[in-house]
Amino acid sequence: MNVNKSNGMMNFSEIYKSKSGGLVALAWASLFAAVSCAPGAPEPYGALPSEAQVEWQKMETNMFVHFGPNTFTSAEWGDGTESADVFAPSDLDCRQWAATAKAAGMKGIIITAKHHDGFCLWPNPVCAHTVAQSSWMDGKGDVLRELALACREYGLKFGVYISPWDRNDPHYGTDEYNDVFRQTLESALGNYGEVFEQWFDGACGEGPNGKRQVYDWDLFNSTVFKMQPHAVIFSDVGPGCRWVGNEYGSAGRTCWGTMNIGDGTPGSHISQEQLNSGEMDGTHWVAAETDVSIRPGWFWRESENSRVKSLQHLMKIYYESVGRNSLLLLNVPADTRGHIHEIDSVRLMEMRAALDEVFSVDLADGASVEASHVRGHGRRFAVENLLDADYDSYWTVDDDVLTPSFTLSFDTPRVFNRIMLQEYIPLGQRVTGFSAEALGTDGKWREIARETTIGYKRIVLIPETEAEALRISITGALACPVLNRVALYLDRVSGVAPDEPLFHAGSSCAGSSSDNGGVVTEDEVLEIGCPTAEIIASSKAKVLDLGGIRTASGFFYAPADKGKDGCVITYDLDISTDGNTWTPVFRDKMFDNIVNNPILQEVRFPSQVELRYIRMTPLRTSSPDTYAVSAFGILAE
Ligand code: FUL
Hints:
A hairpin with a 6-residue loop joins strand 22 and strand 23. The protein is of the alpha/beta class. It has an eight-stranded parallel β-barrel with strand order 1-2-3-4-5-6-9-10, surrounded by five helices. Strands 11, 12, 13, 14, 15, 16 and 17 form a seven-stranded antiparallel beta sheet that branches. Strands 18-19-26-21-24-22-23 form a seven-stranded antiparallel beta sheet, with no helix packed on it. The N and C termini lie far apart (64 Å). Helices cover 19% and strands 30% of the residues. Helix 7 (175-190) packs parallel to helix 8. The protein has helices at residues 12-18, 21-37, 51-59, 69-73, 94-103, 143-154, 175-190, 217-227, 272-277, 311-321, 342-359, and strands at residues 61-65, 108-114, 157-162, 197-199, 232-235, 241-243, 258-259, 284-285, 287-293, 326-331, 368-371, 395-396, 405-423, 431-439, 445-451, 458-477, 482-489, 518-520, 526-528, 534-537, 542-558, 568-576, 583-590, 601-621, 626-629, 631-636. The model is unreliable at 1-36 and 500-525 (pLDDT under 50). It is globular and about 85 Å long. The structure holds beta-L-fucopyranose. Residues 76-77, 201, 203, 291, 298, 593, 596 line the site of beta-L-fucopyranose.
């Protein structure tokens, strides 16, 4: 299709040459009338993204890399007492991370420069728990330097996760800490070139002195902007982008780029549901970022090599993040060598190949398109603009038209199962609802989709449909709709069906259960006792009788269905060989990050034990009355 995007008007000299004298005057007059009446672009509506936020959203997929002492201890949350020497990658290769991310089509990498254990992956001068204190590379190593250079070499953007919660720093929980953290930010953001995203984790637990910190978010944010004026700041409430409200990789089917932030701070009153779907007409532009790990946990551990998410699961996550007006930040943790593990990188390449196969052929290409309305009836905002790849050309309608439609017609019937729409977000997010109808080869129109928001990008998953024409009707909008793209695709590779129940972590054990209720995982850890499905009163303990004496090196517990019905946060654990005499193994122990990421938790005992009975007594649960158990048992080597 060849549409003149500059202004769509004929030029004056052409008219002059083509007309006789008398007609020329008439043409000039009517042309002036047309030019002076032709409406300009619609006024922007509501909260708007900054240029940096639009560029950020166009990145679509980025890689998160969790790396630090936890990589070597198998913890999800280190408690800050780990020796700096624990951090000992045998062959750090950040170029391999960058090459992998690039080949996977990612546009940037964000590294956990400092996680909750307080260990800094760069020689932070205001901290005594960093790579400089470790014997790795004789204290001369610097992961941020390596990664920033690798990102530059591979044309990727570089971002940092820096946790304000610090379980090591002695200042944490005192007034001084906020200033220490300011200097930490200055050091990380001032020495490694451009940083596109600063990732703030809102977690605020106790520090080494048992106190919590009152974070000075104004100071933190202003420091980021002082060091990196164009950085997008991630937190529960932005100001650059927001957490999507879960860690299993799914933005709301309704997903607004806007929220009413008020005086909300990270970790404050905003619910996970609000974060998941955003808020219509919200006061601030804080689009959702979907952070999810390719493995059950955020950090690499050998035992999860067999639990890397399947291609189908990753594609589902893609559709429910990028396809729902969100950016996908996919965590691919580095292993103890300091490499992206081959199992993860192979899966990423499979995902890339599948995305390429699905999205390289636009089945709307070559269609003819007509709209119920076009702004000013001119060509500048013509509906054909929907079919080209120019991001800044769009179809729009007069200000008072809120429910226009457009129809794509095909020479020969097209078969597709994905409809992709984009709103031109520099002018705000406007559409509140839309439907799709297909004209079948039997000459009948049928509704095939009815959804709510579009935003930067919306991919609707429909059953495979053969159509001679497709009509998209905007069924509601806050202001005249402004759309810049429609495309149709056929996905026969991912196996992701429309409207499947969400994938979620923790609903079952990995592998399949055998007759004795055991599950054998590939790393030869025998999980005995899985699965179960119970909702238990919070005051009651969960006891398991293994039916005979076993040797165990740990135990596992999984809550159910996204933490619904509650999960155990802290607990006492006891074991027994006879059911009468109990031996304590853990007291007031915590399942790290279980509320945000309610996945199966594997906990190692200090040493192997003989047992027949195991008892978990909850001390704190996420719901006051009950907790759910979808898996509970022992780890037997
Ligand atoms: C959470 C942290 O507590 C997890 O460990 C992980 O880093 C995740 C991305 O954010 O809030």
